[in-house]
Amino acid sequence: MVTEGTALDGQGREDGQPAGKVPTGRADVVAGLTVAAVGVAVTAIAVQYPLGTLRRMGPGYLPVVLGALLVLLGLLIALSRPDAGMRIARQRARPILCVLGSLAVVVAVVDAAGLVPAIMLAVPVAVAAEDGGSLLHSVVLAAAIAALVAAIFVWALGVPLPLVRF
Fold first, then answer.
1. Average pLDDT score over the chain
2. From CA 164, how far away is CA 111, in angstroms rounded?
């Protein structure tokens, strides 16, 4: 964007690029095309397996869908504006680490203690990602999520997960 006091290069752009051309970061293009190539490879291998139908999915159905999504994501990365990812790089590490830590807590605790204790321990770790989260808020949210997850997965869907192990 041209603001007052900004010098142009004579071609109508601040960054020296010819007018009408969108600058692309070489690394973004290479990374995007690499992701797309992996998606093509996954899809090519997966179509060798039976796809099945939407109601009775075969062993190749999910890999084909994920491969196609990788191709789409790779193309979006390759064709995106180079400054679009800069906002992500400037984010703080705390929220990312808290969310990943909460996932690690679930993985570490669910087999040993059950679903409800894993959720009760993981939610406060995830809530720590936001500034000003209180302990009472974390406990109430953890109890609500544990009840909802138990109702959906264990009772409604019949997933064989123990709610609590002693």
1. 81
2. 10
